[in-house]
Amino acid sequence: MITLEHVTKVYDNVRVLDDINIQFKKGTVNVIIGPSGSGKSTLLRTINYLAEPEKGQVFIHDELVDASPKRLRKARKAVGMVFQDFHLFSHKNVLENCMLAQINVLNRAKDEAKKVALKHLKAVHMESFVTRRVDTLSGGQKQRVAIARALSMNPEVLLLDEPTSALDPETVGEVLEAIRTIAKKGMTLILATHEMAFARAIADRTIFMDAGKVVEDRNGATIFETPHHERTCAFLSRFTKTA
Amino acid sequence: MIVQLSVFNTMRAMLENNASLWLYGLRTTLLLAFVGTVVGLLLALVLVVMKIQTPRRDAHFMKRILVRLVRRTSILYVGFFRGTPMMVQAMLLYYGLQSLGLGIPVFTAGLVVVSLNTAAYLTEVLRAGLAALHKGQKEAALALGMSPYATYRLVLFPQALKNMVPAIGNELVVNLKDTAVLSVIGVTEMFYMGRRIGSARYQFTESFIIVSLLYLLVVNIAVWLLGKLTNMRTRRASIPRSDSGVMT
User: Fold this and answer.
1) What domain range includes position B101?
2) What is the rounded CA–CA span in Å between residue A42 and residue B175?
3) Average pLDDT score over residue span A225-241
4) A70 touches chain B (CB under 8 A)
5) Chain A hits for B144, Cβ within 8 Å
6) How many angstroms separate the CA of residue A104 from the nearest CA in chain B?
7) Is residue B168 in some structural domain?
């Protein structure tokens, strides 16, 4: 379980996160929606402390996360992350991308790391690309490798920061399919996305954020059918119009 | 025509009679440039780590001061070695140590000067190389649980160094030529040998034509080899590139 208590993050005197109090339960798919700049990505980044909050505390399984190297490493082992722009290591091939941190952080033997990496690459249908340089892959392929890389660390929670935003429409489907498969396996997911149809189909819980605050937090996908808050209505109606 | 033939004959005689001296000078120049560049690169790795340190706002007061001191030391180092001529540095180091009773052989002094000087320039090159990397590379490594040290060692430095190959090549070529200034403290490199051989019969024109040809030869071989290396690297990376990016 992940708990955020009174988390506030400020960038250039702007409160990007404003006193956030939220819990994410084990085995649930949590979808965060909201306009650009609402704080979705920053919320994910405070969980693994890539963004250090100015105020408030983050707990993973009741253990405080802070800047101390030992606690930070423990937290980051438990929480994997997939970025909008993939951030694959450009000097490594597909397989090496999935093995590097396993060997360095988890101290796995090379053979074991390779076995684990291949298992996850197979799960995202990238097993035939293992020796390819990552800069020769399409966006969708890169994102599937990034998912396999995160899963190779056996995290308990996976943070997905707008994983399809940098993809062309043709490759969005393959990434969403990979996420759907992970969700079915019961892993805790916290997903920030603009893919409303996908969010609706996959969510155990939907959170709407605006101006650094949690505006609406509902079970399942009910938020899409009966939004309570005026701001949620406005946001979702804009999506319906553009869709 | 007669004059030209006489110059050519003098040069040939100069080469034949002093072959061992020329080879010794060439060997010294090559050693100073190659070893100096490698040692300089290793020092630059340390200096750039010192330079990119930033104190955490919640760190202990003493730790913050220490981090600032480390950073400032690197900045001052780079500033000094980039801001003063290598000839002056050589004089300061060699005679400075002598005056302190810590005299070292001229070759060692020369090698130390080339290494320290190269380190200062490559620190800036490496810093720019690291700054040019997308910050997402660092974040991805940290998010996977890697320590800052492992992040630099396994993710950031390999990428920055790969992009730095042409710049390191340029530094090597500069060093091949700039070692000439070390003759000021008596390092027996090519320039020193040219002056020594030419002074025997006051035939400096001939001796320095030979010196020029030798420099041209080694510099162009180095440029050619570095070009091959860069092309190999770019072919592997499947990025078409027309030249080596090495300047002379």
Assistant:
1) 2-236
2) 48
3) 82
4) no
5) 76, 80, 100-101, 105, 149-150, 153
6) 7
7) yes
Chain B residues within 8 Å of chain A (Cβ atoms): 56, 58, 134, 136-137, 139-147, 150, 154-155, 158-159, 162, 237-238
* CA A100 from centre of chain: 20
Domain ranges of chain A: 2-242
Mean pLDDT, residues A89-104: 94
Share of chain B above pLDDT 70, in %: 91
A81 CB neighbours in chain B (<8 A) are: 140, 143
Report CA-CA distances (Å) from A217 to A32, A123, A134: 9, 32, 38
Comparing CA positions, the residue from B42, B168, B48 lying closest to residue B116 is B42
A92 → chain B, closest CA residue = B155
Instruction: Report helix, strand or coil for A14.
Output: strand
- pLDDT surpasses 80 at B245: no
Query: Is residue B153 assigned to a domain?
Result: yes
Considering only the beta carbons, identify the residue of B140, B150, B162 that sits closest to A87.
Answer: B140
The pLDDT assigned to B240 comes to 36
Ramachandran sector of residue A87 (left: φ over 0; alpha: ψ -120 to 50; beta: rest): left
Chain centroid offset of residue A45 CA: 9
Residue-level pLDDT at A202: 87
pLDDT tens per residue across span A29-73: 999 999 998 999 999 999 999 999 989 999 998 889 887 888 888
> Is A57 within 8 Å of chain B by CB?
no
Reported as a single tens digit per residue, the pLDDT across B222-242 is 999 988 887 776 666 544 333
The CATH H-level superfamily of A2-242 is P-loop containing nucleotide triphosphate hydrolases (3.40.50.300)
Beta bridge partners of B161: none
